[in-house]
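Why do we care about 3D structure at all? Because function follows from shape, and shape follows, mostly, from sequence. That is the central idea of this module. The next example makes it concrete: a single protein chain, its amino acid sequence, and then its structure expressed as tokens.
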Amino acid sequence: MYTARPVSDGSDDGRGPGSLPEFDLPEGVSSLAQGLAVAGELRAAENLIIEGSFDGRVFVPEHEVAVGRRGRLNGEVLARDITVLGRATGRLVADRVEIAPGARVEAEIVTERLVLADGAFFRGVVDPTRTDAAFAVFRHERGKRGKQE
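And the structure:
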């Protein structure tokens, strides 16, 4: 997915005191890296990968959210597509939700398309009828917040 490579500080070997690792993430992708724990509300205008731990609300209505194999998510996610390879609890709202082999999800899922792979664990409720309503509520709340800010 991404690889670390040294960034040169201007010296020939790139190993001077100012060299730092730089990550090659695909363009249009943000990442919450392994080892990070974040709580709050997250909004992104591009795809999002969660490899660390996130507790709160994630709003990425026009893009995809992936919870990586080491990722942990507790809260509410609203995205175009959601893929879980790690662990997720709470509420997932998307056009499409995929729970991969080895993933563990305990949640209310609001989606018209659910992919539950062999070897995935799911405990919760699936509601295929409220996806449009959930997105409309989000857009309404976002509009109200924009006027207050």
